[in-house]
Write a structure and sequence with these properties.
Largest sheet: 6 strands, mixed
Strand content: 25-35%
Structural class: alpha+beta
Strand order of the largest sheet: 8-9-10-7-1-11
Distance between the termini: 40 Å
Number of helices: 4
Number of strands: 11
Shape: globular
Length: about 210
């Protein structure tokens, strides 16, 4: 591992962590149960988020990433490598940039493994505190996305396993389809409250349940 400073965002002393939506207040009518809901909204808070930069044409770089993550590096737009059992994913963001998401508390260890496995010109950036993940599911989740964003989310253009960075409301989000009626939205902290409220408002007409 190169001589660089790393920061463990998970101290051993007890510190209460809060998600970007900790102070959000629901201002629409929501259902008490998921039964009959057209849309279910759930935050997957405090996951680990890392940005990886490097040369995808470098065989050593690709091999090192796979050793560190246990997943192949996706090399084209829209591709997401995922291990659902471990809760680890890596998504193509640009020709030399990828977004890595890991379970809570595993971001520091993941960064260390990457730095041990990689050499040469690359960068690993810790961005866990800057983002959160919202899950939209249910029979009307697609309808909510189609009226909230400009991208073509029709199943023929957006199959399960695809992910893109696109506009959402008047902001942006990384949107990934993880099931037939299940989507993940990775949103920035600074827009989290706004987008959360937008999605709840857009979902209200279909019957929305907020999972805790």
């Amino acid at each position: 591992m190169s001589d660089v400073a790393t920061f463990n965002a998970h101290p051993t002393v007890a510190v209460q962590a809060e998600s970007p939506l900790a102070i959000s207040r629901i201002t629409v009518a929501t259902l008490n149960t998921a039964q009959g809901a057209g849309v279910c909204v759930r935050e997957h808070a405090l996951l680990g988020h890392l940005i990886l930069r490097g040369n995808a044409a470098d065989e050593g770089f690709r091999a090192g990433v796979e050793v560190a993550l246990g997943l192949p590096l996706p090399l084209k737009m829209g591709l997401v490598s995922r291990d659902a059992e471990r809760g680890v994913s890596v998504q193509w963001m640009s020709p030399d940039e990828w977004l890595i998401v890991v379970p809570q508390g595993e971001d520091y260890a993941t960064e260390v493994r990457l730095r041990e496995a990689l050499s040469g010109h690359y960068a690993v950036m810790q961005v866990s505190g800057a983002q959160t993940v919202l899950e939209l599911s249910g029979p009307s989740a697609l309808a909510v996305l189609m009226k909230s964003a400009g991208y073509d989310f029709h199943p023929r253009n957006f199959p399960v396993g695809k992910g893109v960075s696109t506009t959402l409301a008047k902001s942006t989000a990384v949107i990934r389809r993880v099931g037939d009626a299940q989507w993940e939205l990775i949103i920035r902290r600074s827009f989290a409250d706004y987008l959360y409220r937008w999605l709840l408002d857009a979902s209200e007409e279909y019957g929305v349940f907020v999972a805790r």
